[in-house]
Amino acid sequence: MPVLDISIVPVGTGQPSFSSYVAQACKIIEQQGLKYQITPTGTVIEGNLDQLMNVARQIHSIPFQMGAERVITNMTIDERYDRPMDMEKQVQSVRRNMNQ
């Protein structure tokens, strides 16, 4: 299943904090019924590609709805066809390699 790593940077808000934007993004992700993980610099979401692109568009619009005049959104999509993957399997793979 594809995994999306997304971060938004609202510009022109007059405040350095992003937490209110992240909280709104999490609400949208939960409404979509998607699995996600917040990281210190972004949010990782698991779903099919159509779901991920739809939720990314919604997350991108949050700062505008909250008064930002400019938004920079960075996204990375990780998808593979050779075998199934999900967020947990990716983390487990790294941990296994660390223990070798």
Q: What fraction strand?
A: 25-35%
Oligomer: single chain
Number of helices: 3
**Average predicted local confidence, pLDDT:** 93
Which percent range fits the helix content?
Answer: 40-55%
**Could you give a short account of the major beta sheet?**
4 strands, antiparallel
Instruction: Tell me the strand order in the biggest sheet.
Output: 2-3-1-4
- How many β strands by DSSP? 4
How would you sum up the global shape? Answer: globular
Report on the structure:
With 100 residues, the chain is of the alpha+beta class. The protein has 3 helices and 4 strands. A 4-stranded antiparallel beta sheet has the order 2-3-1-4, with helices on one face.
Outline:
With 100 residues, the protein is an alpha+beta fold. The protein has helices at residues 19-31, 49-65, 87-98; strands spanning 3-11, 35-39, 42-46, 70-78.
Write the layout of secondary structure elements.
Elements: E1 3-11, H1 19-31, E2 35-39, E3 42-46, H2 49-65, E4 70-78, H3 87-98
Antiparallel strand pairs: 1-3, 1-4, 2-3
Notable characteristics:
alpha+beta; single chain; 3 helices; four-stranded antiparallel sheet; 4 strands
